[in-house]
């Protein structure tokens, strides 16, 4: 075969969507600082990943006082700066769900050739808006059904039943962070898992965190399942 007939295969996007609670309660006990540090480390790690088969794309939606797209969907290696997360206001989860549903259904942001998305929801409290309809619409959307979804319960006051219904890993529907340091440990596990997944032979398979948890020492990752 002639050399000019070979066409380089372009890496397919592997979308990662972070839904981060930035309500006022996240401003105590070092939680928002831990979340900022974890997000920074995640971006640094993702930006150095190879892009032979999968290219990690990242977006961050925050909900604290109001819900907004804090970081628009972008290839991780192109991220130059992310504004610091600030804790303030209530917990408008419903509005955040509307934003995420709009992102995940947007075929310009996430084209049909993209690998199965990963959605991470992290929260330390109960929603303060009428979230139920928006939450249900997100989970019942075709693309969210196919996505790998993880939920992190932060502290002692999170709505664990709601968060558990968000996660779709049957073996670990909900992870817990009892303090700020465990927020960082959870996001490190997610980062390692996504990075390993992007290098795998089948990036479109459902991703789990189980093997990542097993690889880390007990004192390095203390997340009760």
UniProtKB/TrEMBL annotation:
Matches recorded under Gene3D superfamilies: von Willebrand factor, type A domain
In Swiss-Prot or TrEMBL terms, this protein is called VWA domain-containing protein
Under the heading InterPro entries, the entry gives: VWF_A, vWFA_dom_sf
| Gene source species | Pseudoalteromonas arctica
Q: Output the Pfam families linked to this UniProt entry.
A: VWA
Tell me the domain of life.
Bacteria
Q: What is the lineage of its organism?
A: Bacteria, Pseudomonadati, Pseudomonadota, Gammaproteobacteria, Alteromonadales
- Domain named VWFA: which ranges? 15-190
């Amino acid at each position: 075969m002639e050399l000019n007939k070979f066409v380089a295969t372009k890496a397919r996007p592997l979308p990662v969507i972070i839904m981060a609670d930035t309500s006022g309660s996240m401003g105590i006990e070092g939680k928002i600082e831990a979340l900022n540090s974890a997000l920074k480390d995640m971006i640094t790690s993702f930006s150095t990943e190879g892009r032979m088969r999968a290219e990690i794309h990242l977006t961050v939606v925050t909900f604290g006082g109001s819900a907004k797209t804090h970081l628009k969907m972008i290839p991780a290696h192109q991220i130059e700066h992310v504004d610091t997360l600030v804790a303030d206001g209530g917990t408008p989860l419903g509005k955040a769900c509307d934003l995420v549903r709009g992102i995940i259904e947007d075929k310009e942001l996430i084209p049909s050739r993209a690998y199965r998305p990963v959605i991470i929801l992290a929260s330390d409290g109960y929603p303060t808006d009428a979230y139920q309809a928006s939450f249900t619409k997100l989970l019942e959307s075709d693309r969210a059904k196919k996505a790998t979804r993880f939920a992190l319960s932060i502290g002692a006051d999170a709505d664990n039943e709601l968060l558990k219904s968000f996660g779709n890993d049957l073996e670990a529907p909900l992870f817990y962070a009892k303090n700020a340091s465990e927020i960082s440990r959870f996001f490190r596990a997610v980062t390692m898992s996504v990075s390993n997944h992007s290098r795998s032979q089948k990036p479109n398979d459902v991703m789990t965190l189980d093997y990542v948890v097993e690889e880390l020492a007990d004192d390095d990752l203390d997340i009760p399942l």
